[in-house]
Amino acid sequence: MINWANLISQMFNGLVLGALLALISSGLTIIYGTLGVLNLAHGAMFMLGGYAGYVAYTYTDSFIIAIIAGSLFVMVVGVAMERIIIRHFYGRPDEDQLLVTFGISICLVELVRFTFGSLSLTVPAPKIIAGITSLGFMYYPTYRLALVGIVAVALLSLFLVLYRTRIGMIVRAGIEDSVMVASLGINVYRVFMVVFGIGAMAAGFAGIVNAPVASLTPDMGEKILVQTFVVVVIGGVGSFPGAILGGLIAGEIISITSMINPGYAYVMLFAAMTLVLVLRPHGLFGSQSRG
Amino acid sequence: MIKQRPFLVETLTAIGLILAPFILPHLGFAPNTVNRILVWGLFGIGFDILFGFTGLLSFGQSALYGTGGFVTAYLLTRTGFHHVVSALFIGMIAAAVVGYLVGLIALRRTGIYFAMITVAIAEVFYFVEFNPLSDWTGGENGLPGVPSPSFDLGFTSFHFSSGWPLYGFLAFWYFVGIVIALRIIRSPVGAVLRAIRDNPLRATAVGHNIHGYKLTAFVVAAAYAGFAGGLLGIMQAFMPPDAFMFETSAQLVMQTAIGGTGTLFGPLLGAAIWLFLQDFLQAALGLGAAWKLVLGVIFVLLVCFLRHGIIGGFVDLYALVTGKKAVAEEPAQDGPIPGLTAEEEQKAAEAAIAKIPVASPLPPRHRDGDDYKGPILQATGLTKRYGGLLANSDINFTVNHGELRGIIGPNGAGKSTFFKMLTCEVAPTSGKIVFEGNDITGQSVTDVCQLGLTKSYQVNQLFSQLTVRDNIVIAVLAELRGKFRLDLFRSIESIPGLTDQVNHTLAMVNLTARADTPVASLAYGEKRRLEIGLALANSPSLLLLDEPLAGMSPRERVETVKLLKSISQGRTMIIIDHDMDSLFELVERVTVLQEGRVLVEGTPEEIKGNPTVQEAYLGGVLEQ
């Protein structure tokens, strides 16, 4: 017996999760596409955004400031990370890049654990969009509805930056062929820095807007990182549309399976990934050139 | 490949394991810590074969560790099965089978994709263990009451309970694990695994089925993980569910990287450092939970500054102190001699080269297709389209047995694309390629190489971390063993004919004196000759050479032309080059490509005199 209200509510949850995954995965995928570095600390960026937002919120009581401060802080961390460590790894093998970003991730997670402890923290939703809304046939938390909109706006801004600005054009060209971009006289290293900052900021933003929905813990990034990987494998590495479609697919699979049996959510997600790998090894929107 | 006195490493390991209980307690290691180190070390041996030797970084080993551990623990606690060693082996086999299935999926991709897929798979196992399978695995309670091993010999019985007695049991299995791993890395399979890490493209092109070998490495790693997982349950008398956690995989990766990859002992050393620091930071310095932060920072610093871990650091230090690494004998003078014009230099070079003895070439190996009479290669209607670009258009091309064919054409004429289609690196959009009577269209490079068609690349594709000899060994192994064989325990020296063929190939490309030099310290001309040597080592019946003379000094050119002449005896060759003089001197017929089509075909004389060729290729400038 299917409970329709429940199913629709889960589909909404899936949409929320999917939109978040799409945003985080876009960050991961543009970084990989441009720099060729898979940032295993991307989950930690998500977590860091949440905590930075929490700190800003405790001091100012303003959710808007929390969002801005959280995203900017993570962007600064991202840029610093790229300038200090990552840039020394462009010429080194993939494995070294994975190891070093993984090490950074551990440092960030443990630093947060050391500072804030392992207990979960919460950031309340802003008053205007707190509570629940009646959709006629069912009730749904207002903030979650708003979250879909917020993330959609963020994705749209990312889209505009990538597809309507000069730097975005360079980034997209860099994903296709960064050597060619460098030989056109563009300082790719500066572009790399900017991309890393934007990618990290996408994850950080997701971290803070997600905070009212799920509480903050130091290792919240790990779970989301794994889901992000699946999204990127499904969508195709380096593809912005792939990240969005992959994110929505993954979000719905997790939510709808969870309604039936949460234990199988990952199994289904994995099954979908396997199916894509068998049918389209480079992902739905992936190209042969990368990965 | 590792030349050492036989069983030296094995003996030292045994001595170390025997001495450890007498030394380590004085360094502050509790027996249970030492036991944990051994389990991690054994787990890591398999992982090092996968990561250090084959270059596949998996973040999902926890899935296999947990599988082996829970199968063993389940047998021993829930089924009334009491034979501990058999249960360990059953757990190992279960993990290997799971590893095979996981490998089939994860190895569809390489590099970062592989890493991401393994993480995702491991996460699935974690959730499956906790929920759907919790009736069998105890869910978050794990499986308590795993018995420790005991052996009843009739007159007396041994019981390996916790502490040092259990150490004996674990140390025995660690030793067995190391002995087996050493056999594997010294076997032909081990050599191929290193080649895959170094240059997977070339490993494929010299005729190895690298997918099969990668899967082998994955299954071997899984077996080690499964066995170690079983030992974990026995060691703790409890199988903990966190064996399945991502933490487990992560700790393994970090320990291996800290200790040093590609050494087999790296994970053991890494685990020792890790567990020692954990105890030390937590207890002695009172850091509490912050120990992991300190370890994380240490790890990042190590990855940044000590690329090959602690063991690698010691090796480099040793090399630095003894000055061993720097001294690689320089090749005989190679650059231009001052005060000579190019022409004089060329002559001097020719005179010098005439003195170099040339080894007679190995005849092409007899293969099934060899009795085929008729053209060795026949391509019909070969077309390659890249989007809107027509790289090759309707090429018809026939080469007879024993022929020496040259292909020329301006840059962008589609010569290299044409070669890539002939060796099946690139599938043609349409058309058909027949080699010795077999339709090879759409086959893999590996299969085509095994049939006797190889290519030397325009841009060197060498195994750059190996020595010259080992490069050739990799290629010869593909011929002597076929594209895939699981001779995991065979010594590489025991393959009949290997040494002869390697030496012969080295002599043919005049690299005998440089056999033990690492490829990275070769001069460019020598690398080029090795490139040809790799294609030649399989004794192909048809050899394609993509610009063998490009970028060479006059002296190197003369040397190479002489080399090409000598290897052409009894062999069919097709050569692309821009050096007209050398090419016309070498080949019997020339095909001219222009804009992806065959412009004209004929003897060098006909081509030289052909006005269309001069028009197209030389821009209409006539020479006297």
Describe this structure in words.
The complex is a heterodimer of chains A (291) and B (624). Chain A is globular and about 60 Å long. In chain A, strand 1 (132-134) and strand 2 (139-141) form a beta hairpin. Chain A is built from ten helices and two strands, in the order ααααββαααααα. Chain A starts with a helix and ends in a 12-residue tail after the last helix. Chain A has one domain. The relative contact order of chain A is 0.20. In chain A, strands 1-2 form a two-stranded antiparallel sheet. Helix content of chain A is 73%, strand content 2%. Chain A is mostly helical and 291 residues long. The longest helix of chain A has 32 residues, at 4-35. The mean pLDDT of chain A is 88. The longest helix of chain B is centred in the middle third of the chain and has 27 residues, at 210-236. Chain B has 624 residues and is of the alpha/beta class. Chain B has helices at residues 8-23, 31-53, 61-78, 84-106, 111-130, 134-137, 164-186, 188-198, 200-205, 210-236, 246-259, 266-284, 291-305, 309-322, 342-354, 415-422, 445-451, 468-481, 498-508, 524-536, 554-567, 580-586, 604-609, 611-617; strands spanning 143-144, 150-152, 157-159, 238-239, 377-386, 389-399, 404-408, 430-435, 438-439, 453-456, 542-546, 572-576, 589-594, 597-602. Chain B has two domains: 8-23 and 30-321, ABC transporter involved in vitamin B12 uptake, BtuC; 369-617, 3-Layer(aba) Sandwich (Rossmann fold). The model of chain B is unreliable at 325-337 (pLDDT under 50). Chain B is elongated and about 90 Å long. Chain B has a six-stranded mixed β-sheet, with helices on both faces. A four-stranded antiparallel β-sheet of chain B has the order 6-5-8-9, with helices on one face. A two-stranded antiparallel ribbon of chain B has the order 1-4. The interface between A and B is large, with 44 and 40 residues.
